[in-house]
């Protein structure tokens, strides 16, 4: 007995020593698996230059599951699987103890346990399929939560009293998303009744035969207790735990990664990353380009012909929805034309190395990103691979009219542009646009040979926008520049102006030529100038009244 007790003591000590180590190993395995899947997904997304593929609904749903959604990741399922393997080993040892008494009874218990476990595994596979189908609802739950808790949307949510509306929507999406897991549990409870009844019967038979053997003296009380305990241990395998329910979502995350990677692997323009595209020496040409967004019914651009010469400052104007931003995305290779071709120095854009081409082009979109970084980093990011000196950053900010308010920040150019960080500060919409413009002006002095400004000054008044565009034209040197605006008066000093209307070029010429033409440009230019004049007159009248 002393030897047995000593052995038990040693096993208990080993268990206490090994358990923390196993926990660390399981954690690291799960972390490494999740990290590997994220890296694989990021690499696939980076290798796909077409936004139309990345923006696909199914791809976005699958990406939302890779991080685990609201249930679990592939890494957490892997750590859970380690626990399940341990339970299988425990069940095998328990069946071996029962077999010591009766092999038929052990075999019967083993067959029933395996049958129930197989049913469980099929159910968890069905759970993974269901989660893939309901990924859209899971993504909506996350989105609604972000609307209620993140600063950009929180303002309107509170001002318009949308909290109750968001809660109702969130509940609806949540009920739809969890319908599959709840149905799987209910189905398992219903389907396992026969197996559980048989298993209970086998336990009763084992207990009866073991008790009778013990009563006859053929079985010691110690072995009887061991057999009864073995039955209980084997039964633990058929009772699903949190580890079991983690395998379904984990498998869903694993499959979602594979599906997303396969979808992102759809052929697009070549991306090699190490090729060089010579600086632009000729022209950029759009030849008969048409484009319709995936799932759209009307073309945004229709049979568009446009040529931009090297070193030219071209302005593209038009009302909202004319296709100006879409044209820019096609120039960047982010979308592939539905018809026609985009050429750079006579070479189709699809035939160029996309990474090399994008090193030649710098774009500031109208929905530019407001990076939660320092003011200096927000400007230098236009050329993250090159060393940019502080004087160069300051010169670009000065040209954009941003030095004054940046110097007034708590830490000047080192201030993080977000109030969510210690010592951080936020900017107004107009100030943010001046920072974005400084980023573009820095690109002019860096390696960019083509620069596009897609309405980066929409939050500024007409006079300030015109002043900044003029300042930009002075800075640009020989850079090929494309200025996009819906304000016709702001780009009057560009070398050439193109008017877009419903996806077509309807007018083309200098400011004076288009005004003399008396067409669409002249009409809209006059209307905007008249409105600006009326606004200035009204302001002057208010000032006079105040003085009186």
Description:
The protein is an alpha/beta fold and 548 residues long. The protein has two domains: 25-264, ABC transporter type 1, transmembrane domain (ABC transporter transmembrane region fold, Up-down Bundle), CATH 1.20.1560; 283-523, P-loop containing nucleotide triphosphate hydrolases (Rossmann fold, 3-Layer(aba) Sandwich). The chain is built from 20 helices and ten strands. It has helices spanning 2-47, 51-54, 57-66, 74-101, 103-133, 135-149, 151-159, 163-191, 193-216, 221-235, 242-264, 324-331, 354-358, 375-380, 390-399, 403-407, 429-444, 462-475, 511-517, 520-547, and strands at 283-291, 301-309, 313-317, 339-344, 347-348, 361-364, 450-454, 480-485, 496-501, 504-509. The strands form two sheets. Strands 6-7-8-3-9-10 form a six-stranded mixed sheet, with helices on both faces. Helix 1 packs antiparallel against helix 4, helix 4 packs across helix 11 (242-264) and helix 6 packs across helix 7 (151-159). Mean pLDDT is 79; it is low at 538-548.
What is the compact description of this entry?
The chain is α/β, with parallel strands linked by helices.
């Amino acid at each position: 007995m002393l030897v047995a007790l000593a052995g038990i003591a040693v096993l208990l000590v080993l268990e206490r020593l090994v358990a923390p180590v196993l926990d660390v190993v399981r954690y690291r395995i799960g972390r490494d698996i999740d990290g590997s899947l994220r890296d694989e997904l990021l690499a696939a997304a980076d290798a796909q230059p077409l936004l139309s593929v990345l923006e696909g609904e199914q791809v976005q749903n699958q990406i939302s599951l890779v991080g685990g959604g609201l249930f679990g990741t592939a890494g957490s399922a892997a750590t859970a699987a380690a626990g399940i393997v341990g339970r299988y080993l425990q069940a095998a040892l328990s069946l071996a103890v029962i077999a010591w008494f009766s092999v038929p009874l052990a075999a019967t218990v083993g067959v029933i346990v395996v049958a129930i476990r197989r049913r469980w595994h099929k159910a968890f596979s069905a759970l993974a399929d269901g989660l893939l189908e309901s990924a859209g609802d899971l993504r909506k739950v996350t989105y609604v939560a972000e609307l209620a808790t993140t600063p950009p949307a929180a303002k309107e949510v509170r001002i318009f009293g949308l909290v109750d509306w968001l809660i109702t929507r969130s509940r609806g999406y949540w009920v739809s998303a969890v319908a599959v897991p709840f149905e799987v549990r209910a189905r398992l409870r219903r389907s396992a009744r026969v197996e559980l009844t048989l298993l209970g019967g086998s336990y009763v038979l084992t207990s009866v035969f073991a008790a009778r053997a013990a009563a006859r003296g053929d079985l010691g009380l110690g072995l009887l207790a061991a057999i009864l305990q073995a039955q209980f241990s084997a039964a633990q395998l058929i009772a699903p735990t949190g580890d079991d329910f983690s395998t379904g979502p984990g498998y869903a995350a694993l499959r979602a990664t594979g599906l997303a990677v396969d979808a992102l692997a759809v052929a697009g323009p070549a991306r090699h990353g190490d090729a060089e595209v010579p600086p632009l020496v000729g022209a950029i040409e759009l030849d008969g380009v048409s484009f319709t967004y995936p799932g759209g019914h009307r073309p945004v651009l229709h049979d568009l012909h446009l040529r931009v010469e090297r070193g030219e400052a071209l302005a593209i104007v038009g009302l909202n929805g004319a296709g100006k931003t879409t044209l820019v995305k096609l120039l960047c290779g982010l979308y592939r034309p539905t018809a026609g071709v985009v050429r750079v120095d006579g070479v189709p854009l699809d035939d160029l190395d996309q990474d090399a081409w994008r090193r030649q082009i710098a774009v500031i979109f109208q929905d530019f990103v407001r990076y939660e970084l320092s003011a200096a980093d927000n400007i230098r990011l236009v050329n993250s691979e090159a060393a940019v000196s502080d004087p160069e950053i300051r010169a670009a900010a000065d040209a954009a009219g941003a030095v004054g308010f940046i110097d007034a920040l708590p830490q000047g150019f080192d201030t993080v542009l977000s109030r969510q960080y210690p010592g951080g500060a936020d900017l107004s919409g107009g100030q943010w646009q001046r920072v974005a413009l400084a980023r573009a002006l820095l690109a002019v002095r860096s390696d960019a040979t083509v620069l596009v400004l897609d309405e980066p000054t929409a939050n500024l008044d007409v006079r300030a926008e015109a002043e900044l565009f003029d300042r930009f034209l002075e800075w640009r040197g020989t850079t090929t520049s494309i200025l996009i605006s819906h304000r016709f008066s702001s780009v009057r000093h560009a070398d050439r102006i193109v008017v877009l209307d419903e996806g077509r070029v309807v007018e083309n010429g200098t400011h004076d030529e288009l005004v003399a033409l008396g067409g669409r440009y002249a009409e809209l230019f006059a209307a905007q100038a008249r409105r600006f004049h009326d606004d200035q007159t009204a302001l002057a009248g208010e000032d006079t009244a105040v003085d009186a």
